[in-house]
Amino acid sequence: RTTELDSICFKTEVIPVIEIVRLEDAVPLASALVEGGISVLEITLRTDCALAAIKRMRDALPGASIGAGTVLTPAQYRQAEQAGVDFVVTPGATDLLYRYGVESPVPMLPGVATVSELMTGWQYGYRRFKFFPAEASGGVKALKAFGAPFPGVRFCPTGGINIENAADYLALPNVMCVGGSWLTPKSLIDAEDWNGIRDLARQAAERFHR
Ligand code: 3PG
Questions:
Q1: Using CA atoms, how far apart are residues 51 and 85, in angstroms rounded to an integer?
Q2: What is the pLDDT of residue 208?
Q3: Is the peptide bond before 16 cis (omega within 30 degrees of 0)?
Q4: Which family does it belong to (predicted)?
Q5: Which of 26, 68, 69, 132 qualifies as a FRET site for 56, CA 20 to 30 Å off?
Q6: Which of left, alpha, beta for 176 (phi over 0: left; psi -120 to 50: alpha)?
């Protein structure tokens, strides 16, 4: 599990958190990100067409790693598996999700915000987590503090991260990559400004190096 997640999360510095409202935006948006140098994508299951969007991206971009985000229940986890995702991300975690994730062929990156939440996941064998909401939950200072009792744990902080503060997170030894919605602003998607999105991706890909 840890190895599978590492092969995805250490492949990129940034995982864009994507909300697809119009199904026809899925492939041009994902292609723009990949052209810009970002090939690990998280599509949130917050919209009606999210699963269909994942399938289209999966078919159009076989080289990209496609994940489902905002997975709240085992039922959604199963739907994501069936859509062909490479990974699943959850904003928080429940015992039901942890148990489902242990058995699933698709690895889960569970969301935690506190040490106690982390310890619950740890007991189920999880060593890779999303730290969410990162900025609101103590940010870089909290992650530094998590490093002492949990030296083998790695995080993908998400929530309030942007081009300005991402480097501070990426400099931490227990950070694999960061997540964020700043690469896919709604204004650019609505305007179908795929060049603009490609440029944001390129800016991130060129700026950050672990
Ligand atoms: C998520 O689900 O990970 C967040 O919505 C992304 O947070 P951000 O919009 O602050 O980047």
A1: 10
A2: 87
A3: no
A4: Belongs to the KHG/KDPG aldolase family.
A5: 132
A6: alpha
The answer to whether 70 touches 100, Cβ cutoff 8 Å, is no
Tell me the one-letter amino acid at 54. I
- Condensed to tens digits (0 to 9), the pLDDT of residues 79-93 reads 999 999 999 999 999
Ligand 1 binding site (Cβ under 6 Å of any ligand atom): 17, 69-70, 91, 132, 158-161, 179-182
Q: Note if 117 is an active site residue.
A: no
Give yes or no: 35 in active site.
Answer: no
Find the largest Cα–Cα distance for the chain.
Answer: 46
Q: What distance in angstroms lies between residue 47's CA and the mean position of ligand 1's atoms?
A: 15
Sequence length of the chain is 210
What SS3 state is found at 130? strand
Instruction: Kindly list the distances between the CA atom of residue 14 and the CA atoms of 102, 180, 182, in Å, as whole numbers in the listed order.
Output: 25, 7, 10
Q: Say yes or no: domain 2-207 is CATH 1.25.40.10.
A: no
How is 57-68 classified by DSSP, letter by letter?
HHHH-TTSEEEE
Domain ranges of the chain: 2-207
